[in-house]
Amino acid sequence: MRHSHLLRFILLLVFANVLGVTAQELPCQFRIGLIADPQYADLEDRGERRYRQSLQKIEESVHELNNQAVDFTFVLGDLVDQGINDLPRIAERLAKLDSPTFKLLGNHDYVHTEDGKNLYKAFDMPASYYSVNKGDWVFILLNTNEVSQYATKVDTYERIYWQRQQDSLKRQGRTNAALWNGGVGPQQFAWLKGQLDEAQNANKHILVLTHHPLFPENGLEALNNRELLELIAQFPNVRAVLSGHHHAGNFGVYKGIPMVTLEGMVEGRDNAFGVLNCFIDRIEIHGKGRLTSRVLWFPRKADRKK
Description:
By secondary structure, the chain is an alpha/beta fold. Helices cover 29% and strands 21% of the residues. The two termini are 29 Å apart.
């Protein structure tokens, strides 16, 4: 399998060279819609959060993503602000996308929820964390709410694990020991390692998606972001980590891996969504409205070690 991907890559380069095509002109492999934090609710505006306007913004984004003929769309959590009671109105608008939608849960999606373990079913997700394989790419969608106060019940293993995380972070003086942040539990961490191992061994491109950012650290990062970063950094084929949660957006590079926090749709009058184009040598984010456009070239192995 690994040799077949390498052969395909070589053939693409040879084909491009014969036609006089530069690497930058090689065809796009996938076009992916990107949406983060619509956070819809039937509420009055609070500061720059315009909850009701998110319905119109979703309609606009769906229309544009259909026009762009995206292959699928990722929604990186916080579809709603006050839990699943408001979900039907935004879900029916997302359902008008012509291609599949893959979702993550955010902390606001858990509001007024009694059973955090099964909440993913209401959002039409295959599991609370999962991966999507498309051609030479593996997209790993993590559940950074798994270990949190808002998604767990008292006296469960997850709540006890969360409390230990909180206590440890407070002793360290970390600012992310906040009630709206969450993390990844040991079982999911082991699953992630297995997914990364499998994709790396198959020489596939890897994109990791989270609700809570991992980096840069600003108090909104996942509770165990440093452990996740160290694991992810061991795999050279990880091309980027995309996250939501921090509505202002953010960007950093951790050991050669771009860490992109998408601007939240709920903030301000202008919309915020985008299209991610996947190439064999880079990914391009074409932002709409407030969402920042970026070109992220894949580093050489020598560059990743720096």
